[in-house]
Amino acid sequence: MTVTVRDFRAEDAEAVTLVRRAALPCEVTTPESLLSGVKNANPAKKYRLLVAEREGEIIGTAHAGIAYDSSDPGQSYVTPHVHPDHRGHGAGGLLLRTAEEHLGAHGATSVYAWAMDDPESLAFAGKRGYRPTRTAHFQRLDLAHGTLPELPALPPGVELRTAADYEDDPRPLFLADAETTADEPGDISTDFTDYEDWIAHTWNDPLLDRRLTTVVVVDGEVAAFTAALTDRGTRYASGMTGTMRAHRGRGLAKLAKTDSLRRAREAGFTDAFTNNDADNGPMLAINRWFGYEVFVTEVRHVRELG
Asked: Is the N or C terminus of the chain more exposed, i.e. has fewer CB atoms within 10 Å?
């Protein structure tokens, strides 16, 4: 049967969520987060959420956009996901082709895409002109049965807060997120300069659990944080963990994660996930210390357009 690709509609949210969970079991996503991502996308992003259908059933999806918050013009991204039970019908290739045409029409010169680190996925990318650039590891921690470290005594001047404590004024968290994200290894640089845009796509993301997001404060100033993303069920993910440059090397990121993970377990979450670039040695070491194990490895690829 013929596979067709079209734009996402609101009534697709549940089906697209199921496809993404099946294709990438370590991802934390919900229908609400998909709808929010479409609704709140910055116009400069030229964001499109595509779905692939076969016999009236949604079997694949891809999200594509321009990296509008990068200082390097022409960068863009797309990653197709096809349900494992429906591969081999051309859905992935059609999703990718449709996205590339859209991105090229809006000035993209390079397209970045993730592929699972397995022979089939790597061959798919290579056949379509993509070359590998870097790897990243999704890691899983069994919160239900694993052992978490005790929360250490806090040094003088250090206190633990949550993102919920900043609901009246989240700007300090915006500044912390901007500084730490700028220092993350990656192919596409990210420059957070638009506070209102950050509010729309980060602070108001339905996945962000403000009460489980731990903020380490030193002498009244934000020094480190770990952002907790949850499906409000059993799955927890570290969206971002970072330490301000002036406070690095003091174990504050480890402190933030210890507090957040312990509270997540108390709240009933059973599976914790995180994702790190293979070159991010400090965070990989911290996650190994907690007991995280590599669950899935992905390889970032790029293709030049035009």
From this structure: C
Within 13 Å, how many C-alpha atoms sit on residue 171's CB side?
5
Residue 61: CB atoms within 10 Å: 27
Average of per-residue pLDDT values in the chain = 94
Which H or E run contains 227? strand 221-230
Q: Is the pTM of this model over 0.90?
A: yes
Residue 186, pLDDT > 70, answer no
Q: Are 72 and 189 in contact (CB under 8 A)?
A: yes
Q: Which residue, chain included where needed, has tokens 């096809």?
A: 82
Residues 151 and 291 in one domain: yes
Domain of 96, in residue numbers? 3-108
Q: How far is CA 64 from the centre of its chain?
A: 14
- The residue written with tokens 């059973």 in the block is 270
Q: Are 91 and 67 in contact (CB under 8 A)?
A: no
Query: Is residue 61 located within the same domain as residue 178?
Result: no
Whether 170 and 222 map to the same domain: the answer is: yes
pLDDT per residue over 107-117, tens digit each? Answer: 999 999 999 99
Question: In 193-242, which ranges are continuous DSSP H helix?
Answer: 195-198
Packed helices 13-23 and 31-39: angle between N→C axes, nearest 10 degrees: 110
Which one-letter amino acid corresponds to residue 245?
R
Cα separation, 212 vs 157, in Å, equals 22
| Continuous H helices in the chain | 13-23, 31-39, 91-105, 119-127, 171-182, 195-198, 252-266, 281-290
